[in-house]
Write a structure and sequence with these properties.
FAD/NAD(P)-binding domain, 404 residues, 25% strand
Length: 404
């Protein structure tokens, strides 16, 4: 049996390795269009590679995927976080868990993961071919794949692991084969707030906020980083993932609300401010930041509701308390545009999951054609979830390409 894997990223390597180790008699070829495979692994996590997330329950794990949750519930029953941890451990790569659940190699170097994958592929006998893009597939079996514009290569099974495409035109070659495509749109991006006064706080982080897209129930909670162009950090990235399609439809222009308390009820906020009035009455309000807020953020909010700079806590009136409460839990800003998070491009959209078997990753319409990774209409929030989807779908596709 000859299997062709298209794409030399995390999912492609994992699929090729699992195909070959499941059936060592199979010929497994991996074609990567660039000369630098596993490029996204190299830059992930600031060069440390956020391999996965320490969420061991399949249902809870799947809940971190704005697209693909139900599909992945079934897939995670075959291969999930435990499988990932054990696979890398068996190859001498130990993972560590940080306090937010993200898992990295103990070495803190993405090269550790790259070397493990490349060595595993070499030991398994995967034939890696770089600088050879696949431009067309003719349905089989046998399939006929066109490599560049001249050479053709036949295969009994094909696994597509080409990653996300920024535009639907990048997946036209699959549509020509009869594969249904959900139009791709960006996910995991930061929120631009041009000419917004909050950008003066660039570099400031807040441990826990809740962001909401106004007029919707789309929200995200987590740490926030204020940048010179707007909002970043886990809260903003998660909001972009959950709101990817709606934000695209709105042209990335919408109102975003910030709850600086992270979801505290109005009555509790009133109580906290009342406590400032009674217990710290002689202190300058600007110096008494509540809810663990950085003092720069608190000063910004006090200015935003136009309370005079030298006002003491004990001099706050009920109207002051109400204005502070409003800005603390419902601070409104206008988003105009987005910025890709570092170089980690992630898309919502891709191969329509309705036409893929989650137990095998095989196309329901083109027998012998399998999919793995971001080419599928699957995307997770930040924190290692997108890589876990790649390991899971890659392992399943690789196994079943030789078993089906």
């Amino acid at each position: 049996m000859r299997i062709v894997v298209i794409g030399g990223g995390a999912a492609g390597y994992f699929a090729a390795i699992h195909a070959r180790t499941t059936d060592p008699t199979a010929e497994v070829f991996l074609f990567e269009r660039t000369r630098t495979p596993l490029a996204k692994v190299r830059i992930s996590g600031g060069g440390r590679c956020n391999v996965t997330h320490d969420e061991r329950g399949s249902r809870r794990l799947a809940a971190n995927y704005p697209r693909g949750e139900r599909f992945l519930r079934k897939a995670f029953q075959q291969f999930a976080v435990n499988g990932t941890v054990e696979w890398f451990a068996a190859r001498g790569v130990r993972l560590k868990t940080e306090k937010d659940g993200r898992m990295f190699p103990v070495s803190d170097r993405s090269s550790t993961i790259i070397e493990a994958l490349q060595e595993a592929a070499a030991r398994a006998g995967v034939r890696v071919r770089l600088g050879l893009p696949v431009t067309h597939i003719r349905a089989g079996p046998p399939f006929l794949t066109r490599i560049t514009d001249a050479a053709h290569f036949s295969a009994d099974r094909v696994i597509v692991a080409t990653g996300g495409a920024p535009r639907a035109s990048g997946l036209q070659w699959l549509q020509d084969l009869g594969v249904a495509i959900v139009p791709p749109v960006p996910s995991l991006f930061t929120l631009n707030l041009p000419e917004d006064g909050i950008t003066a706080l660039m570099g400031v982080t807040v441990d826990r906020v809740r962001l909401t897209i106004s007029g919707t129930r789309i929200e995200a909670t987590g740490p926030l980083l204020i940048t010179h162009w707007g909002l970043s950090g886990p809260a903003a990235l998660r909001l972009s993932a959950w709101g990817a399609i709606m934000l695209h439809e709105r042209g990335y222009e919408t109102e975003v609300r910030i709850d600086w308390t992270g979801g505290t009820k109005v009555g509790k906020v009133h109580s906290v401010i009342d406590a400032l009035r009674s217990e710290r009455s002689d202190k300058i309000l600007r110096n008494c930041a509540p809810f663990g807020l950085p003092n720069r953020v608190w000063t910004y909010l006090v200015d935003r509701v136009r309370i005079r700079p030298g006002k003491r806590c004990g001099d706050l009136g009920r109207h002051d308390r109400d204005r502070l409460t409003e800005v603390l839990i419902n601070d409104r800003h206008t988003m105009r545009g987005k910025t890709t998070f570092k170089e980690e491009f992630v898309t919502a959209g891709g191969v329509d999951l309705k036409h893929v078997d989650p137990h095998t990753m095989m196309s329901r319409t083109v027998p012998g054609l399998f999919f793995a990774g971001e080419v599928l209409d699957i995307d997770g929030i930040t924190g290692g979830f997108n890589f876990q989807a790649a390991w899971t779908t890659g392992a399943i596709a690789g196994r079943h390409a030789v078993l089906s």
